[in-house]
């Protein structure tokens, strides 16, 4: 909820005009103003502030005022108030972990603001939508809406809001491990704060900047920022901010190997955290002390502090802190050569990672369930409306029949004509109703299959990412530690020429094992695809194939901007190109090949050609090969089309068009 609080700061500041007393006093003042106001616009504004006040102090009661605001603004045609009321309801739903309903409510608010061309409220709603996605763990979607909000704030020159939005964007980039981008946006926010001579958002901006610098291994610069941030937090008597700063100082000291400075810093963090009962800060202080004593070769003290951090994090339910505490304990065991205990703590860390992954999957599943429920409710409403139309038509037919029977005495021939006409209309109506029902059933089935396919593909991407990270961080760490241990042993042992040759061969085999491990991790989830997007990942893949000498492979791309294609679509397209190139290498006996990506508006064209032996495309109509089926399924999931042109000794050309990049 920290980001949500930051977004409500402008509203809370505005409430200062009603006094500096308790929140109940400010509420009573607002209620008094509400009873005196005559204009609906003034009432709506006051109800909004009351709702914000309750949202900050008693969220359960805020829902009443949010709904009252929407009701008043719908009646009085006040789109700004309606958009704010919908967004406030979305914030309440998000705090109740009802993310699917919250996102749906934010989408309604966005449509209201767009229709009325309300730029500032639209930017605020984009902010709140980004927060919902961030709480769900959907960092890329969160970043997308933060950037939309920032674009509007920049357009309307809202400098005060820009200082906060830049900090939020920097925080998300840091969560995505895009530390260079996190550094850029954190610095933009800090420079803007200094230009405005404002401290609002300056402290959080410095924390984000130092986090990016530490992960970029610019520890000296990070310490300069952190010491200034520490002084700022101390002047503002913001102890929570001081704890965050001290935690980052520990990381910077560790990066510079200044372990002798960690203890005093950790002791200060422990004192501050204890004074405000900040259990997360206490845990990180214990972790810092454990690291200090480990490098002082005091194993018993080091593992004591690590176990204390683990115990506190477990009892307080701090899952992320518990994971870091297990990591620190496993590092201590490696330093002191306790491999079995290292595996124990490393397995516990993995179990926490699995819990975090399961939570993300559960949130995604809940969102899909919520969307499916909304679609189901809409389908029921449509069915009831159709049933009512049929009843109305039936009543009309009965009236027509009664009139026809009454007129039978006068004109028998005319009655027969009317009867036949009504019969034909009824038959057509029944046929049309049957066709509509069948079409609706088909649409629902397609939607269900799409949701299932998207969930499976999302699970595959997350599982590949987790396995690649585990191979790199777990097994890679062990192999690197083993190599380091053997290197240290060689300096202290007397090695004969014969054993030296065997030792060198062993070290060479260990280096090749590390290289092979990195290759496997890269194949499971290319780092370029996660960090830089589809264009960079495909270019990197094609260059590696070309440099291998197996074939001369050329890659061309047009209008493919980095990270402009959604992650799921980018992953599927990457696997399609990888499969086609591997087929060329295995079967085509070609000397040259071309991979081409072209984007025009929302259409992506993929072309893969080679000058190999070719084949008769007719055999694909009866082919049950696994590779071709996988290719068809991936293209079908992307709602694309595939065209394969080939002939014996004429090479092969595969053209794929994806017309909807919003998948």
Describe this entry's structure for a reader.
The protein has 663 residues and is mainly α. 78% of the residues lie in helices and 6% in strands. It contains 24 helices and five strands. It has helices at 2-14, 23-36, 40-57, 59-76, 79-95, 99-115, 119-136, 139-155, 159-175, 179-196, 202-215, 219-235, 239-255, 262-275, 279-295, 299-316, 319-335, 339-407, 412-492, 497-524, 527-532, 534-548, 567-588, 626-637, and strands at 552-558, 592-600, 603-610, 640-646, 652-658. A five-stranded mixed beta sheet has the order 1-2-3-5-4, covered by helices on one side. A hairpin with a 2-residue loop joins strand 2 and strand 3. The radius of gyration is 32 Å and the shape is flat. It starts with a helix and ends in a 5-residue tail after the last strand.
Strand content: 5-15%
Poorly predicted runs are 1-20, 364-378
Q: Which structural class should the secondary elements be placed in?
A: mainly alpha
Number of helices: 24
Mean of residue pLDDT values: 79
How is the main sheet built?
Answer: 5 strands, mixed
SSE inventory with pairings:
Elements: H1 2-14, H2 23-36, H3 40-57, H4 59-76, H5 79-95, H6 99-115, H7 119-136, H8 139-155, H9 159-175, H10 179-196, H11 202-215, H12 219-235, H13 239-255, H14 262-275, H15 279-295, H16 299-316, H17 319-335, H18 339-407, H19 412-492, H20 497-524, H21 527-532, H22 534-548, E1 552-558, H23 567-588, E2 592-600, E3 603-610, H24 626-637, E4 640-646, E5 652-658
Helix pairs in contact: 1-3, 2-3, 3-4, 3-5, 4-5, 5-6, 5-7, 6-7, 6-18, 7-8, 8-9, 9-10, 9-11, 10-11, 11-12, 11-13, 12-13, 13-14, 13-15, 14-15, 15-16, 15-17, 16-17, 17-18, 18-19, 19-20, 22-23, 23-24
């Amino acid at each position: 909820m920290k980001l949500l609080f930051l977004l409500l700061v402008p509203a809370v500041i505005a409430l200062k005009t009603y006094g500096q007393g308790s929140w109940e006093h400010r509420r009573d003042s607002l209620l008094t103003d509400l009873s005196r106001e005559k204009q609906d616009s003034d009432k709506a504004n006051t109800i909004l502030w009351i709702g914000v006040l309750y949202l900050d102090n008693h969220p359960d009661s805020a829902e009443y005022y949010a709904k009252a605001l929407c009701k008043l603004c719908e009646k009085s045609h006040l789109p700004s108030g309606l958009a704010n009321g919908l967004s406030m309801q979305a914030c309440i739903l998000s705090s109740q972990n009802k993310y699917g309903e919250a996102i749906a409510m934010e989408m309604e608010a966005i449509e209201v603001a767009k229709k009325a061309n309300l730029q500032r409220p639209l930017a605020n709603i984009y902010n709140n939508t980004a927060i919902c996605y961030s709480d769900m763990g959907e960092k890329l979607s969160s970043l997308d809406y933060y950037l939309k909000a920032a674009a509007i704030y920049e357009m309307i020159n809202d400098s005060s809001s820009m200082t906060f939005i830049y900090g939020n964007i920097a925080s998300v980039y840091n969560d995505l491990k895009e530390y260079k981008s996190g550094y850029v946006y954190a610095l933009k926010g800090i420079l803007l704060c200094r230009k405005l001579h404002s401290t609002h958002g300056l402290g959080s901006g410095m924390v984000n900047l130092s986090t990016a610098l530490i992960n970029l291994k610019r520890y000296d610069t990070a310490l300069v920022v952190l010491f200034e941030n520490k002084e700022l937090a101390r002047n503002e008597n913001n102890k929570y901010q001081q704890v965050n700063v001290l935690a980052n100082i520990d990381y910077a000291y560790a990066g510079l190997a200044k372990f002798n400075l960690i203890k005093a810093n950790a002791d200060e963090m422990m004192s501050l955290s204890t004074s405000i009962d900040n259990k997360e800060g206490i845990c990180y202080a214990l972790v810092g002390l454990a690291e200090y004593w480990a490098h002082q070769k005091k194993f018993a003290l080091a593992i004591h502090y690590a176990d204390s951090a683990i115990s506190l994090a477990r009892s307080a339910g701090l899952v992320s802190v518990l994971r870091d505490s297990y990591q620190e304990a496993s590092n201590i065991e490696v330093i002191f050569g306790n491999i079995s205990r290292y595996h124990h703590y490393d397995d516990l860390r993995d179990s926490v990672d699995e819990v975090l992954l399961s939570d993300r999957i559960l949130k995604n599943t809940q969102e899909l369930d919520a969307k499916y429920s909304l679609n189901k409710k809409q389908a029921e409403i449509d069915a009831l409306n159709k049933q009512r139309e049929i009843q109305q038509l039936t009543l009309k037919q009965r009236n027509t029949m009664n009139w026809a029977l009454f007129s039978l005495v006068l004109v028998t021939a005319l009655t027969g004509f009317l009867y036949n006409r009504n019969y034909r209309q009824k038959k057509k109506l029944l046929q049309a109703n049957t066709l509509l029902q069948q079409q609706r059933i088909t649409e629902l089935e397609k939607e269900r299959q799409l949701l299932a396919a998207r969930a499976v593909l999302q699970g595959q991407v997350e599982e590949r990412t987790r396995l690649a990270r585990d191979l790199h961080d777990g097994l890679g760490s062990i192999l690197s530690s083993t190599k380091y241990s053997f290197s240290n042993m060689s300096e202290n042992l007397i090695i004969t020429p014969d054993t030296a040759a065997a030792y060198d061969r062993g070290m060479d085999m260990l280096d090749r094992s590390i290289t092979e491990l990195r290759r496997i991790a890269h194949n499971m989830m290319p780092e370029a695809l996660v960090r830089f997007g589809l264009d960079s990942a495909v270019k990197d893949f094609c260059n590696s194939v070309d440099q291998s000498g197996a074939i001369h492979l050329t890659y061309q791309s047009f209008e493919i901007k980095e990270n402009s294609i959604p992650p799921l679509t980018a992953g599927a397209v990457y696997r399609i190109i990888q499969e086609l190139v591997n087929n060329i290498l295995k079967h085509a006996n070609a000397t040259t090949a071309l991979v081409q990506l072209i984007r025009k508006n929302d259409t992506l064209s993929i072309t893969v050609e080679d000058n190999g032996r070719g084949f008769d495309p007719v055999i694909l109509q009866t082919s049950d090969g696994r590779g071709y089926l996988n290719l068809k399924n991936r293209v079908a999931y992307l709602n694309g089309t595939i065209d394969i042109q080939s002939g014996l000794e004429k090479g092969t050309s595969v053209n794929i068009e994806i017309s909807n990049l919003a998948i």
